[in-house]
From TrEMBL, chain A:
This is DUF2783 domain-containing protein. It holds the Pfam family DUF2783.
UniProtKB/TrEMBL annotation, chain B:
InterPro entries: FAD-bd, FAD/NAD-bd_sf, RIFMO-like. SUPFAM superfamilies: FAD/NAD(P)-binding domain (SSF51905). Residues 30-372 form the FAD-binding domain. This is 3-(3-hydroxy-phenyl)propionate hydroxylase. It comes from the Bacteria. One of its GO terms (molecular function) is oxidoreductase activity, acting on paired donors, with incorporation or reduction of molecular oxygen, NAD(P)H as one donor, and incorporation of one atom of oxygen. Its cofactor is FAD. It comes from Marivita hallyeonensis. Keywords: FAD, Flavoprotein.
Length: 62, 544
């Protein structure tokens, strides 16, 4: 079991950020909200570990 | 004087005058059950089979009309089998395994319950509740013919109770006027609106869900559906509401459930023309059907603080109520009875202290909380309570169409599975290293093929000591409580189910199993002192 990684971990942060914004381009607020919700679920499933997910939920709220 | 609150499907226990009505002083009974529904009748069966006299009082004369509960889970069938009446249920019921989930106009995925092999009973049968009740009443009649001390008194309405420390006085109204009896133990099985609960001024707390469901049972005339469970989120048909469920019942009847919202005009919605308009929109204009029964219901997720109040004990919907998603109403009530029957029997026989009944409270409140939590989660998924909740719900449905990972998140009701009594004071410490988690102390014994039948046929009604690949004494007695022992060889079950379900990584195992087929203790080899201590613990007796 690993802990939630809150240190820089993405190779090419600017590229990722651009990719993230790109999927929302031209989308309405509702469409974007739906995309984000799906993204959260896809990433959460990839992580899988409930302790890490819990820590991530807490980190997002704090 | 007697208002019929509902029509009868079967007149099963017409009013007959009892000798108690002519007694000069109130007759005292060991057990009186208030309510002749499925849970009350099951209670009578459990106690009657133990030879304990039991009187069931019901304000009607039989089984109420309407399909109502239609999904009976494996555990309920196993309990009914212990009572001797599961076979007719199995013969009558519809077995289904395939479910389809729709969102709007798209099928998002389908699932198969994939029932595990090596069980006498399927995961579920669908059957109208009146049949379930009638088969149990038939069993009551069969037992009565053999001399079992069970009485069901129709049109006996309890008007008031006077609850004492060690008994209750019941004032009853009949077509012949009032009379009074007394009960050492009073069991409240009088349903979600329990008059007994109100008479005693007891709390029923939880959440009321602001939604109503229109149920329509239809018999198809020129069309049919497969024997599957179909569930629509946001159905595309006109005025179908937030969700729709289609389910097969026996007699070519299909159950359709429309979730139609909170502010509805019940009288208007229940007019046949209006129900047909909804059904026609769903089924198409050319499908002919007969409307068998319809009803509108609302639900709540609530339970009493305590199920045991001295010598008054509540079971079934009277003690707890859940949403219909997951079939956890009647099925959990059957588990209440399963849990209470042997405990009350041993207490009445003087073989266990009254403290044993506190474990009913503890174990079944655990069960009720599990059911309430599951059905609340289903409700929140089916009817999202906020914009964000809906956003995620729709995201799950959207993803589940393409990706397998999202399907376990889809919640259209988590189907009832029996409760494991983890943390119960009746459990002994797990003494079987490598043993399967599913048969840990507190768990209900899973079935497995055994000889020409099934293992569960040999468990229950009394304490059983089960040896697997190791011998145990065939009889043991402690404080007047008998334990029956028998050994099996896991190799006799060539499919390996006994080994898989009871041994795990262990080579041998000994299980002490309660009369309700739950595990009290398990260990590698028979050790008399440990078994005796485990038995005393399972009886809520002092353990040195």
């Amino acid at each position: 079991m690993s802990a939630l990684n809150l240190k820089p971990n993405i190779d090419g942060p600017d590229d990722f950020y651009e990719d993230l914004l790109a999927i929302h381009e031209g989308k309405s607020k509702d469409e974007s909200d739906a995309i984000n919700a799906r993204l959260v679920l896809i990433l959460a499933n990839h992580i899988g570990d409930r302790d890490v997910l819990k820590a991530a939920l807490e980190a997002a709220v704090a | 004087m007697f208002d019929e609150r509902y029509k009868l499907a079967f007149k099963a226990y017409p009013y007959e005058r009892s000798a108690d009505q002519d007694a000069s002083i109130p007759v005292r009974h060991p057990v009186v059950v208030m309510g002749g529904g499925p849970i009350g009748v099951a209670t009578a069966l459990d106690l009657g089979r133990q030879g304990i006299p039991v009187v069931v009082l019901d304000d009607h004369e039989g089984v109420g009309m309407g399909s109502r509960a239609i999904c009976f889970a494996k555990r309920s069938l196993e309990i009914a089998d212990r009572y001797g009446c599961a076979q007719p249920m199995l013969d009558k019921g519809v077995v289904w395994n395939l479910g389809k989930v729709f969102h709007d106009d798209r099928k998002v995925f389908e699932f198969n319950l994939l029932p595990e092999d090596g069980h006498k009973f399927p995961a579920f049968i669908n059957m109208q509740q009146p049949y379930f009740e009638q088969f149990m009443i038939d069993e009551v009649r069969a037992l009565q013919a053999q001399g079992a001390p069970i009485e069901i008194r129709g049109k006996n309405r309890v008007e008031s109770v006077d609850v004492k420390d060690d008994h209750t006085v019941l004032n009853i109204l009949t077509p012949d006027g009032p009379y009074t009896i007394e009960a050492d133990w009073l069991i409240g099985c009088d349903g979600a609106n329990s008059p007994l609960r109100s008479m005693m001024g007891l709390d029923f707390k939880g959440r009321v869900f602001q939604d109503s469901f229109l149920i329509a049972d239809i018999r198809m005339i020129n069309d049919s559906f497969p024997t599957e469970r179909w569930f629509w989120f946001d159905p595309p048909f006109k005025s179908a509401g937030a969700s729709t469920l289609l389910h097969k019942q026996p007699d070519d009847v299909w159950r359709v459930d429309f979730q139609i919202g909170w502010d509805v005009d019940r009288v208007e919605e229940l007019k046949e023309d209006n129900i047909r308009a909804r059904l026609d929109a769903m089924l198409g204009p050319d499908v002919e059907y007969e409307l068998v029964w319809s009803s509108i219901y609302t639900f709540q997720c609530m339970r009493m603080d305590k199920f045991r109040h001295g010598h008054v004990i509540f079971a079934g919907d009277a003690a707890h109520q859940v949403s219909p998603f997951g079939a956890r109403g009647a099925n959990s009530g059957m588990q209440d009875v399963d849990n209470l029957g042997w405990k009350l029997g041993l207490v009445i026989a003087g073989k266990a202290p009254e403290a044993l009944l506190d474990s009913y409270d503890r174990e079944r409140i655990h069960g009720a909380d599990e059911n309430i939590s599951n059905s609340t989660r289903s409700t929140d998924f089916i009817t999202p309570k906020s914009e964000t909740s809906r956003l995620f719900r729709d995201a799950v449905l959207h993803l589940s169409e393409k990706y397998e990972f999202a399907r376990p998140l889809v919640n259209s009701g988590r189907l009832s599975v029996p409760c494991v009594y983890d943390g119960s004071p009746l459990n002994s410490e797990d003494g079987l290293p490598g043993g399967p988690l599913r048969t840990r102390p507190g768990a209900p014994c899973p079935d497995a093929p055994f000889q020409s039948g099934y293992l569960l046929d040999h468990l229950g009604d009394e304490f059983v000591l089960l040896g697997i690949n190791t011998s145990v004494p065939s009889q043991l007695e402690d404080g007047g409580v008998a334990v029956k022992g028998f050994s099996v060889s896991a190799a006799d079950d060539t499919a390996g189910h006994i080994a898989g379900r009871y041994l795990g990584d262990a080579d041998t195992a000994v299980y002490l199993i309660r009369p309700d087929q739950h595990v009290a203790l398990r260990m590698t080899k028979f050790d008399e002192a440990t078994v005796r201590a485990g038995l005393r613990r399972a009886l809520a007796k002092e353990v040195d």
